[in-house]
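Protocol step 4 of 6: structure prediction from sequence.
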Amino acid sequence: MMLLFLVLWTAFSFSFEENVTEWIQKLKEEGITKERIEKRWKEYEDLARELKRISEERKDEYKVYKKERKIYVEKNKKKKGEEKVKERIYIFMSSSVPKEVWYEYVRQVTEMNIDAVLVLRGCIGGCKYIKPTLEFIHDVITLGGKEEKGLPVEVWIDPILFRKYKVKVVPCVAIEGKKKLSCGDWNLKWHLKELFKRKEF
């Protein structure tokens, strides 16, 4: 969704000045009243402000540019040495795990800038009602409301992954495609050291 906002804002920015006069003239020729033009103009202004705000918030993550009348979006490359883990990491969790443990994993994933996903076995209280699960996930990624916009960490509901990696207890951490698990209420870096057999992370 944020990526779509960036594309929209960039397209809007590139075309705004060169097309606005032509656009107003066309509306007049079609018999659109001044009031309707002003209303449409206000809507465009509101949209532009919102798109600009969102794009400014995410400008460090994506590069958006125009080339040969087309809009291109590229994810900014990490600086050399920044990417310590290339594989996807699964962090198997449960709503029974204390919230502080959840918050700590969310913080660590964000700080380490790794491709990691927190995984629940199923919905909280069953999937007949999804609201409790959504509220739980919202609380987790906002660190209990401390991060109003939420941190960029994904939380999946995937019982198949639990079976595939034979997860019996939580928290457990696994590398995508590898059988080995590292389980226990430990720091994420400790889990990664165990899984990758490295001294530092």
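Step 5 (inspection) to follow. The first strand starts at residue 62 and ends at 67.
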